[in-house]
């Protein structure tokens, strides 16, 4: 009797490097709520109060790097399908359950902006449509982005009829002060802040990032089935077009998006619609730029890839370190540092996590969170 064995998928180090790079952008995007929890709780719109640092982050980082991460989630799923073979359905179901539990725990304990629960839910949809053809997956992703952008345009049109309805509300200073006091209080105060804030932020993440994340899952699925990142000559042919669209179209649109968030009204809604359409272009340009750098300087890939291999551990690790620095779990520095100093903290945190990832993976095959998640996913099957 012949036994069919699922082919083992090789490790794609370029994907690990891109994932490690994306972790840096995600850290920059997320650090604002740790460094200044009162601003977001009081109704602020920028990631780190205001000023040049916030404007740069809003333009170049915000909404750009979770797009990359979502694309890689879809791409990595195709690698898992090749490795798991006929066991893909039960294993993916367990993996999504593990991600959901991990996300809820993180959301209530350390990071209210957790996205793992969203990824777990969308992962079930990805599993259901896993046999979709690459071209169909791309079309479906484009439809999702198009419809989502059209909704923002429709809201912008309605706001034009009633200009006062889209005004940026003033910062609720009382709510901001209370949130900061809780976040920098004792551990029980931090837990109270988490419990009060996480459900609202989670709904915001699901509502505003869910459609784009699903579209990028589908784009990643299509790219993975086509082995786009595994065959450098294929993406290299697309590189000039991607760079032109990303920096020539996506970057100006990102500048408009930042301006619109400060303006409010129909301009802000128009900025949201335009950002939905163009942020994948700028994100793709980032990825292609990195891949081109990696081809010429392999040391860059060697520095980034370990963090990408242990991406879940690094994602959780970012939250843990940020809590120890900014919350009452540790130094309670929230609200104390200028934005440029916060970026210095980000640089030190990112460098530390890169070094820890390289050190850990010289001694272990996986990051600690990856190991636990894989054991739960395989449920006793012998890992290859």
TrEMBL record:
Residues 223-378 form the DUF418 domain. It comes from Thermocatellispora tengchongensis. The chain crosses the membrane at residues 20-41, 97-129, 141-161, 201-221, 242-262, 274-294, 315-334, 340-361. Pfam families: DUF418 (PF04235). Keywords: Membrane, Transmembrane, Transmembrane helix. This is DUF418 domain-containing protein. It comes from the Bacteria. InterPro entries: Bact_Transport_Assoc (IPR052529), DUF418 (IPR007349).
